[in-house]
Amino acid sequence: MSESDTKPRQLRLRQASRQRREQQKQELRSEIVEAAAKLFLEQGYERFSLRQVAEHIGYSPTTIYLYFEDKDDLLFTVLDDGFIRFGQQLLEAAQSTADPKERLLAIGRAYLNFGLSNPGYYQLMFMQRSDFLHNSRKGEARPRIAAFEILQQVVGEAIEAGVLRSGGVESYSDALWAVVHGIVSLAISGPKFDPARVQRAAQVSLLMAFDGLAQP
Amino acid sequence: MSESDTKPRQLRLRQASRQRREQQKQELRSEIVEAAAKLFLEQGYERFSLRQVAEHIGYSPTTIYLYFEDKDDLLFTVLDDGFIRFGQQLLEAAQSTADPKERLLAIGRAYLNFGLSNPGYYQLMFMQRSDFLHNSRKGEARPRIAAFEILQQVVGEAIEAGVLRSGGVESYSDALWAVVHGIVSLAISGPKFDPARVQRAAQVSLLMAFDGLAQP
DNA sequence: TTATTCTAATAACAGTGTTAAGTGAAAGAA
DNA sequence: TTCTTTCACTTAACACTGTTATTAGAATAA
């Protein structure tokens, strides 16, 4: 074998090995995140513990620190999934129709739907650890309230189209956000608010909000 | 000294002693609650610890268990103060005027005022441990959502008076509750919502809600 | 004075997040 | 192949947490 053959082969082998190791690392990382998500959803925020996650995947507790800075970092990563899905669903709703009013209604319904379908995520994202919302992580450009900007944009378009009365885009968006967040919070906060009651409240709230902001 | 003199005196002494001890017990209990409230407001729910409370009042951690069942029981007691003040302020607002519309507005403003003035209490009462809201304690007749019934009653009167359009009292109340709760939540959730912005959002939200439910 | 009651403290258990030190196998260089 | 280095992982330990069982000691009752 000539030199020009063996040398590249060694290089290829080394590279392949490195890749393999890297992939295994990513796999374990994913395994941790999956186990964490599972346990978090099962047991709730307060009972969620790193040692339990470690036990569940068959590693020592300290191993987690090779893949995540600390407990918050892992939780943050778990919630990323929630934030991404949340943003996607709002975006889809915003693009579902061109009619400004229908657009706003679609966003509201998408918001409600996410919150009511993912109470575990929602609770941590917006009620228990709302700091996750604003504080961006180490390498991240912007925090995860991008969804809020979608709402503001659609509200602005609705005002320009004459569907909503003229006024502050920010205040209107805040008010609409408050309504849907309030409904989801009520639904999550206890058994007193059964699904049927929440459905009625959601329906009434959306109509109320639109009639209240609509051009008279 | 005759028998008829000494016997009642011993009785009186015994009774006084018992009373004194009872009072001292109540004083220590209050001291615990005060220290707990202080530390809870200073450090927040997550950092709040029994051992810190004990340290602060100069007793052993286990002494607290002579006065409270567990950590939740103490926290519950601390929050009682919050729930009572909350209910009182809503009640005052409801009695401040006879005009149905003004009444509703007053309640809404009172709600917002409580939440924005007592974010620490509000957060625990309605966001982090909303189970406190619904689950009544051992010796208690009803849970602490009595304030909700005030709202429902006033909403009912407003409908009858023709101020609000006819519809479900429960749904209307839920929708109004959702609005104010949403605003307070936004205000608490992060520095992104500065006081001025919250004020504008609160103003807009209340008007929106009333225009949205008002008789057209 | 003796016996009882009751408050408080000590010690301990089981659990938590987190850090520092060590171990053993795989990878790289000679 | 042999030696060295890198690196994933574990063990041990620290400083906490809530909570329970046991014990000491003082105030009260007999």
Write the layout of secondary structure elements.
2 copies of one chain form a homodimer.
Chain A: H1 3-47, H2 50-57, H3 71-94, H4 100-117, H5 119-128, H6 131-134, H7 146-160, H8 169-189, H9 195-213
Helix pairs in contact in A: 1-2, 1-3, 1-5, 3-4, 3-7, 4-5, 4-7, 4-8, 5-8, 7-8, 8-9
Chain A binds a DNA duplex (30 and 30 nucleotides) through helix 1.
Describe this structure in words.
2 copies of one chain form a homodimer. With 216 residues, chain A is mainly α. Chain A has 9 helices and no strands. The first copy, chain A, has helices spanning 3-47, 50-57, 71-94, 100-117, 119-128, 131-134, 146-160, 169-189, 195-213. The longest helix of chain A is centred in the N-terminal third of the chain and has 45 residues, at 3-47. Chain A is elongated and about 75 Å long. Chain A binds a DNA duplex (30 and 30 nucleotides) through helix 1.
